[in-house]
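worker-03 picked up job from queue 'complexes'. Input manifest follows; two sequence lines, order preserved.
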Amino acid sequence: MAIINPGFRSPRQLSSRVPPGQSVVTSWPVLTYGPTPRIDIDAWRLSINGNVHKPTELTWRQFNDLPKSRMDTDIHCVTRWSKLGMQWEGVSLDDLIKLADGLTENTHYLIASCYGGYVTNLPVADVMDGKALVATQADGEPLTPEHGGPARLFVPHLYFWKSAKYISHLTFTEHDHPGFWEVNGYHNYGDPWREQRYDTDL
Amino acid sequence: MVTEVLREATDMRSYMFAFDEPVMHYAGQHYEIRLTAEDGYQAARLYSAAMPANGTSNMLQLTIALMPRGEVSEYIFHNVKPGSHLEIRGPLGRYFVWTPQQTDPVLLVGGGTGVIPLRAMRLAHQQAGSRSMMKLLYSARSYWDMPYKYELFPRNGKPAEDIELTFTEQPPVGWQGYRRRIDAAMLDEVLATFPASPRIYVCGPTPMVETVTQLMLSSGLGTNTISAERFGSTA
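worker-03 finished. Artifact:
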């Protein structure tokens, strides 16, 4: 049972676009658990490996020659801010999986690993059918290092720690491998609409 | 239940909570305060624990800064008094923590209200009687913006020996120490007092954490030795 706090009132305008417990921001907060890594764009590689028919590695130029997809959407951070109406651009995971000649049978998870050592895990179904990008632009500008540039995973229907900054490896697996925050007290799936924030949430 | 409210600094207060159960968390962990309106609307914010808690007490201290247009901090500052009840969840987060089992030297670097979890780490270090080296480098705007003065820098006294302070806007009268933002020279001077490269915890506003962690990488410290907690936005 929640404690009712006398005199505490809801703001006048509440949007049905905002998941429970989130507040809308206009600025863009930064959350990263360590230093922002320094990435040499000439040495940058994106590997698509694990349970794919043709493991593939792309240079920055090869990656940028791929057709781009755009997602107009909101983002939701587990630390309780949401930023509405953003435009994100990058290469869809569908296209990247196609480039690796598709997934093998019994592939259920994507393990996303990053420059700097960050790792996160997602069900494969959550990154297919237009639901995810490897993004390089937000609101028409290249992603800055603080926000995950040169490229980050982008899966906006989950809390934003799943949209791993500084992405370097997309590894498809049969079994789940909980990532950095997932073993440090946060939820394994992270649906903002069900408020799956911490590992004690259902 | 709130038992006490302490004025720590300009727009910063500590709230002492008594629970029915003993409180236990690692220094650096945070808690969530959730407010509920009569119509069911809820808002929640995260606050770092300001003191360690090893399960021997039922008290929790959260230090809260008043945020402009902050619906939760404004409510708390204006309405919460000793005897008030708040919904609190935690402890949360298991990454930005210091435990007494750690034996490597530690440098804590804080800016503004970022000192709150670092203060908990320093107290945990003291309470455990740890013999490992721990130092705090703290950047405050002014003496009046600095919480925990009674521990970190008693008036007319000197900063404690394990603390380096810098005041970026208004140092106290007679201040002889640093009076600028944390920069490479300051970091090098502090790091030079360590016999070996320390484990580092940095907490503060995003621009300060970005600057400090990049300076550290430039001076050769490894990414894996630096833990960071940021608050606020890019410009």
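worker-03 released lock.
The radius of gyration of chain B is 18 Å.
Chain B is about 20% helix and 35% strand.
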